[in-house]
């Protein structure tokens, strides 16, 4: 645990998750919400089998709220890797209660996990990029492929400013890896806009965000970051920033 986190007081709030709701910021959020809603409505009109991949990060909670609040015909699913933080499971339960919905949950195949652990070790992903990507593949990519089977399109909460690997992210693109359309309604949203939406609409979110975890994945591969540090710095922090993707959103 970082020194910044260990010194937190119980009432402390991460400034990044509590933006000042200026008129300009509020107006921007309302405008971008309308744009995102229009895109999602157009997507449901075009595709009858469309699903949303919810990782329970801040961005995905914005889309969960939008889909549930507007009663859009979009299925919601999540990937339980088996190594998520306890706070993420708490949020999963909170979402079910707040929106009276039950997102589908996909798990990795136990045979693959058992084989990996037996041959490589429980935390082998720290040893090389190849072993880390192999872990991500069995825990995320393969379950995602099952989740997307039979679908025509899927929705993600990715934003262009999240990482160098996501620069120039379009709101709509063809996903050649999964052979279906892909929508990124929040591609041009800023982090402040995401958190302003969460505050304005009283959206539940992961408690780790208030402990300097801007991006949350599996527990052993996620850590807190310093104030002002890149928002993806806490993900796979032992790797070069240009390789920091789990394989879910890598283009062929």
TrEMBL record:
One GO CC term on file: cytoplasm
Pathway: Sulfur metabolism; hydrogen sulfide biosynthesis; sulfite from sulfate
Domain of life: Bacteria
Positions that bind [4Fe-4S] cluster: 135-136, 218, 221
Catalytic reactions of this protein: [thioredoxin]-disulfide + sulfite + AMP + 2 H(+) = adenosine 5'-phosphosulfate + [thioredoxin]-dithiol
Note on cofactor: Binds 1 [4Fe-4S] cluster per subunit.
Cofactor(s) listed: [4Fe-4S] cluster
Name the record gives this protein: Adenosine 5'-phosphosulfate reductase
SUPFAM superfamilies: Adenine nucleotide alpha hydrolases-like
Active site, per annotation: 246 (nucleophile)
């Amino acid at each position: 645990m970082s020194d910044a986190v260990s010194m937190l007081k119980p009432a402390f709030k991460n400034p990044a998750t509590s933006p000042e709701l200026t008129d300009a910021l509020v107006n921007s959020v309302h405008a971008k919400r309308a744009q995102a809603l229009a895109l999602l409505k157009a997507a449901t009109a075009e595709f009858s089998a469309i699903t949303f991949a919810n990782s329970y990060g801040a961005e995905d909670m914005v889309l969960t709220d939008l889909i549930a609040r507007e009663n859009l015909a979009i299925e919601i699913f999540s990937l339980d890797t088996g190594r998520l933080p306890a706070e993420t499971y708490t949020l999963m339960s909170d979402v079910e209660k707040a929106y009276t919905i039950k997102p589908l949950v996909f798990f990795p195949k136990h045979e693959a996990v058992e084989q990996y652990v037996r041959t490589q070790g429980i935390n082998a992903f720290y040893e090389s990029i190849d072993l880390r990507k192999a872990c991500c593949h069995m825990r995320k990519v393969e379950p995602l492929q099952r989740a997307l089977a039979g679908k025509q399109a899927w929705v993600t909460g990715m934003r262009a400013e999240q990482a160098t690997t996501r620069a120039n992210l379009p709101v709509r693109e063809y996903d050649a890896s999964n052979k279906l359309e892909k929508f990124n309604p929040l591609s041009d949203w800023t982090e402040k806009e995401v958190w302003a939406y969460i505050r304005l609409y009283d959206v539940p979110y992961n408690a780790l965000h208030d402990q300097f975890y801007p991006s949350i994945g599996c527990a052993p591969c996620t850590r807190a970051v310093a104030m002002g540090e890149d928002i993806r710095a806490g993900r796979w922090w032992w790797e070069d920033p240009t390789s920091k993707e789990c394989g879910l959103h890598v283009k062929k």
